[in-house]
## 1
Amino acid sequence: MFDFKPGFPLQSSPLVNCITNQISIEMIANSLLYVGAKPIMAAHIEEQDEVIQAVDALFINLARLPHNEATHLVHAAKRANSHKKRVVVDLVGYGVSQFRNSIGDALVDLKPAVVKGNMSEMRAFCKLKSHGRGVDAGEEDTKADRLEELIDALKDKTLEHENTVFLATGPVDIIVSKDHVVKLSNGVEYNGQFTGTGDTVGALIAANLGSGLHPVDACINGVSYFNICGEVAAEKSRGLNEFRFHLLNELSLLKDTDWTKEVKGEYV
């Protein structure tokens, strides 16, 4: 059996501030509620200090960077550091523009607990050739040789950021810390075929951090729990709309089962 510390059901009801795009706000908020966490979506710079003091973790998503709001993300991460609150940074769209890259780099420089993205986003972050299109990963970037190349590059990143865990999602999900490399292989193709799925995984990871889990365990739980929900949902569904309904429903149900036995993973 794959060895990790289970996070679901949550041992507390962590309050998670999610600074994300408007498209996925409702999905993220409900997903956190379904697993027993509490969401708040407080993005304005004027309230960040008070909000960060109150929450248990912070999730920052690069998906939407409207005028004047990019600095709010960096300010929130700085306040989280000041109050010793753990941060998850999702490098959505990294590689699309130099502006987006600069904000992502500034957030990573603040040493968040977890930095995540899909295979193409994380390859771009590591200055490897990336075949991403917008916010979607390119199929070429998920091949086995590219996976090993990315693992080596992320290992180098841990030399600069020894307290940060890096997560790259894809057909095989990889987690890289200074001490561990983990490969996870649950999930179904439907998981990535509607908007907000990656955002939800990031929020689930933040909930686990807010409950006190080590960042590696938080990543294993967030990714595997979501992907196994997808596996269960796929068996009940005909088409993407039905799948989305069952996937979100399983977020509230799977935690009451012995779901950890279904995790497909290995330390490498």
## 2
Amino acid sequence: MILSPKVVLFDMDGVLYDSMPNHAIAWQRAMQKFGIRMSALDAYQTEGMRGVDTIRIMVKEQQGRVISETEAQEMYDEKTREFGLLPVAPIMDGVVSLMQKMKRDGLQIGIVTGSGQRPLIERVLTDFRHFVNRRHIVTAYDVKCGKPAPDPYLMGLQKAGNFRPNEGIVVENAPLGVRAGVAAGIFTVAVNTGPLSQSALKKEGANLVFDSMPAWCDAWDDFYFSIKKQTDC
């Protein structure tokens, strides 16, 4: 596959925002109210999956019940409420500079998140208004099968302009998100912004792994030059 990128599809939590510590706290507090045990590590390992899917899996595993999506959504609404009580997560260091370089090089920016928290989506449209619009955002409500299925990233390509997999780049921080990008056949870059090991991202098939967003930003020019050189040959 010859990479000929036209759009970069960013995950949101842990990529655009340093928000995963808040999510871990909110998940633990909310699920405790429903008798569900959830650790901070669980939150990181299931990151990227639709919240209602995470809840249905944990209820089945811990309580032996199969719950409807409606009941799971009610539980997820409590997690959203808890998240809203926490301090606002900062924009991830380096991500705006990276987007500026991508836009300079003529690439579109899209967002593909497993989140269904509408206030967060509205914040994205404000914080990243120079790079992304509502039409190019995929949320939990846009797909039936969330990450690690390829559907969210395939939808991201479609929303961006019906692009082919070799015309996209995925930027992820979570194993399930990396798996989704790889399953979609898209060149996938993992940025390890959390407590998981580098190997947890590499084993899911990430094409490149960086230990921070600034490191990925610093590598962009050489990376893009090498792609253009290959395409032009």
## 3
Amino acid sequence: MESNYYTTIFAVQSCLKLWLVAPQTPSPRHIILTSSTAAFLGLPGYIAYTPTKVAIRALADTLRQELLLYGKDAFKVHCCFPGSFLSESFFQEQEQKPGLTKVLEGTSMSQEELERKIPSAREIARKIVRGLEKGKTYIAVDFQTELLLNNMRGPSPRFWTVCDFLLGLLASCVWWAFRIDFDRKTRRYGEARNGRDSRCQV
């Protein structure tokens, strides 16, 4: 919570304290929050991480509405949802990540293979900026996250209303099959592990 949520909310609070006493600017002031694909998909191994990213998504939704109190175009709140991207912390995380998590997210491979498969931080940043330039409230940086986002969007703002709605329908048909597969893999992993060790560990 301290690393992922409190650092976000206190930074936003500090900016708003300055902005709310300053004269309004001709163009909106933008608040860009960073959540994660994990906000839409709970995987074993991310139990300390996922709830904080869900909290950031909820913060974006609530903050967007509350700031309408100051006018339609005074503030714009955005939230981006990157998945894995290449960084030092990603490779450090790989060293500590449970085997089951790697299997489910598709990162059970060598560093060289990961470097070919996973996008760079710069590439992800470019996609986020493109989404901002288009005026998106919620920004997914890959098709998988776009599906998950529209599967769980609820009353959150849509960008392409009809397209987002259709993606939500598609996701509702597709993601249940992935969830069943993930559940099956988790059970098998647990059975194999518990066969070796009587203690239940991830």
## 4
Amino acid sequence: MNLIRQFSDDCWDILQQISDPEIPVLSVVDLGMIRGVELDQDNNIVVRLTPTYSGCPATDVLKDEIVHVFTAKGFTPIQVVVDLSEAWTTDWMSQNGKDKLKQYGIAPPKGEAHSCGTHVALTDGIECPHCHSIHSKLLSEFSSTACKALYQCQDCLEPFDYFKCI
């Protein structure tokens, strides 16, 4: 049993090293994009990946990177399966990932997806990741990507992205 646990831990450690191409401080694990790692009946490593949205242009890049890193570490054969059985949600993000977002200058999602999703109007008062003030104003519901909104802090006057609940 310890060998299986060590193998699983090693796989998750490898996946922690694979960065999101859009927000490089976050790993695919931080984002909650990895839905499972297991061995199939032929002892192939199978990684289940759920992209942040079904049409994500980085999906193939992430699949290739996972195969590359596992192979470089001697973990073969490896197969990456895109799992769209459930839509990705910010609820799957780790707290560590949300903390990294904030340190990177992006306000992390606030609340759970069902209570603050993109179908719910965005409001002022998102905490500024720079000075931690809650005196912020929504400038645009969309920023550099559809999953982020653009805010400006009314205290330090810095603009910042908010990663919307999805």
